[in-house]
Amino acid sequence: MLLRTLLAATAMMMVVPAYANGDGTEFAAQIAGHVVLPAETFIEPPADAPADLRVSGKFTSGPTRNEALGTAEGRSAGRPTGVKLPFRGQPVQGHSGIKTMPDGTYWVLTDNGFGSKANSPDAALFLSHYRMNWAAGTVERLRTVFLHDPDKKVPFRIVHEGTEKRYLTGADFDPEGFQIIGDKIWIGEEFGPYILRADLNGKVEALFETMADGKPVRSPDHYAVTTQNPGQPMPASVNLGRSRGYEGFAASRDGKFIYGLLEGPLWDAEKKDWEKQDGNQVLRILEFSVTETKWTGRHWKYVLSPGAAAIGDFNMMDATTALVIERDNGEGTADRACPAGQRAENCFHDLAKFKRIVKIEMNDANANAAVRKIGFIDLMKIQDPNKKARKPLNGGVYTFPFFTIENVDVVDDRHIIVGNDNNLPFSSSRDPNKADDNEFLLLEVEALLKAK
What we know:
Elements (H helix, E strand, L loop, with lengths): L1 H11 L2 E2 L8 E3 L2 E8 L4 E2 L11 E2 L15 E5 L2 E7 L1 E2 L1 E2 L3 E6 L5 E5 L15 E8 L4 E9 L28 E7 L2 E6 L4 E6 L4 E6 L1 E2 L2 E2 L29 E6 L5 E6 L4 E2 L4 E2 L1 E2 L2 E10 L4 E10 L6 E7 L4 E7 L27 E7 L10 E7 L26 E6 L4 E6 L17 E7 L1 H5 L2
Parallel strand pairs: 2-30
Antiparallel strand pairs: 1-2, 3-33, 4-9, 5-8, 6-7, 10-11, 11-12, 12-13, 14-15, 15-16, 16-17, 18-19, 20-21, 21-25, 22-23, 24-25, 25-26, 27-28, 28-29, 29-30, 31-32, 32-33
């Protein structure tokens, strides 16, 4: 029995022939554990938070306020998801960054709320400490830390400006990645983009502007950017697309450096085009010194693969290698697809095709140049011989067909953890008309982790 088990494990992890597009070698992935946190999971804001945060999602139906609980159904690419806004309490949805802790628990970051500055002023910003029960398939929330700015370290006006605790909301920031270094939480933010430093209770201590090539990096949502009159060009200071700031946010293993990975390319003013290499978009990985609290001036270029539209998360494995999520904007599987060329409310018209975890190398030799892609796993064909999946398989494999997959970290020398952002109530990637749950996969990927 032991021999058969070992042989099966070896077969599962064998290398699939390399692709010819520069992405490295494809490796197999096998489910070692799977937990599900139900979509409609809510928490109460702190007792001293403004009453406005007791109900969330009041501004998601358009420009006018809607205070009638459960009256506006969420939609995913036009499909009703079965979950209705506004919500009593704060949804724990929006998992957008994860860190494995030494005791086997995980800290997870929740993003800005409902997808934009305009619709998220009543979405609180927080991180949660989770314990995964892989045997039972459940998630236990141990603690939640809400971000707040009582010392007015944020240089611009926030939603709860006049309150004592000054809790932060999704109209202030869009946190998409984080690192816990010593007794500080470092957060990569997407709107500005900015770096925030907070203590372990969520109190903001500092905000750092982003710099690249000696110049500030600013999106149209940066606080220093003003609205233009019709016919006037965007200010020259804007060199990043809206909501294209930090999506990946890694740190060196010694905690001395942070590596912020932008979701979108920088604007090349001379070429009047987004930064590209061989026709593919280039995303910058920018190096920030934690000890000196300043940008070092070094960067690496992450070239998106053909078929990918964005990255989802980024964490270092060791001093020179890291894991990155690359994805397209599709969702759903072929068994629930719409007829070719058609679109309807009860089927998927734009299927998930490109969902990967990529291992990269970034070192002194390729600083200021492109990272090397060593290999990847395909999240649309995960093996499950031991029947660990908590959801049905598709064609004999387990798929992770979510629109946004935004959590990846190393667990040990054989396993990684991967999780989705379910965008409650705006994503329905497994069932066309059912809001996605929050899922976390423990994947055995020893061959990928050892690949050179």
